[in-house]
């Protein structure tokens, strides 16, 4: 999930127009150009598309926190260092701070996005990366959250995403949230069933008949002196 998509969905859910978005960037100490902002809002297949950089996405979320919660100091928040990227976990954390969401709020939004999870699974996203219970937030989880956020804050408007209308519990996502399971021993795997031919022979794994009634070669006679 690229930052352009995240930026579009957050702006839709919070009803942020171009003027408000530019002011949010200004709060983070960044002067955003209107044409550059529009290019960051486009999809990859659209003409004039420019990928939204990690630093730009981080400044937008930092400015959103200041707008919603107030500034902690007179100086703008520090920007990402060159080569540093913004993870989905950080995006989720910054949105949670900006919206003053508690655990129950986060779970409610996830449920509105048609994804159910426990408090333990949710809290794993906000652990430090070196913590043993830390779990990376995948693109699909973030997508469910942003969909649920739009449905929570804009129930009167149809969501721009309708590809997962039915409630789901993705096995792939659930598997990524759980601890790794030890692989089974080779001996524990079941062997393919063997089938018998009409002649009584067996079909091997490679499906070649092994006829047990096939005549054996006669033994070689010894040459007489």
From TrEMBL:
Q: Where is the signal peptide?
A: none
Tell me where on the tree of life, at the top rank, the source sits: Bacteria
This protein is called DUF1456 family protein
Q: Where is the composition biased (Basic residues)?
A: 175-185, 214-225
* Pfam families the UniProt entry points to: DUF1456
Ranges for region Disordered: 157-225
Query: Could you tell me which InterPro entries the record lists for this protein?
Result: YehS-like
């Amino acid at each position: 999930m690229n930052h352009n998509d995240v930026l579009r969905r957050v702006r839709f859910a919070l009803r942020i127009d171009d003027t408000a978005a530019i002011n949010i960037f200004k709060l983070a100490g960044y002067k955003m150009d209107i044409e550059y902002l529009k290019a960051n809002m486009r999809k990859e297949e659209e003409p004039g598309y420019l990928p939204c950089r990690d630093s730009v996405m981080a400044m937008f979320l930092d400015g959103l926190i200041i707008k919603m919660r107030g500034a902690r100091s007179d100086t703008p928040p520090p920007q990402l260092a060159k080569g540093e990227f913004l993870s989905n976990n950080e995006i989720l954390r910054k949105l949670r701070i900006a919206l003053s969401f508690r655990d129950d709020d986060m779970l409610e939004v996830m449920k509105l996005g048609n994804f159910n999870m426990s408090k333990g699974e949710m809290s794993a996203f906000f652990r430090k990366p070196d913590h043993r219970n830390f779990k990376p937030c995948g693109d699909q989880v973030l997508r469910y959250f942003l969909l649920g956020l739009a449905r929570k804050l804009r129930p009167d408007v149809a969501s721009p995403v309708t590809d997962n209308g039915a409630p789901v519990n993705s096995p792939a996502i659930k598997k990524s949230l759980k601890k790794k399971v030890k692989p089974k021993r080779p001996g524990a795997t079941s062997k393919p069933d063997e089938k018998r031919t009409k002649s009584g022979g067996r079909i091997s794994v490679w499906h070649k008949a092994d006829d047990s009634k096939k005549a054996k070669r006669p033994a070689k006679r010894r040459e007489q002196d």
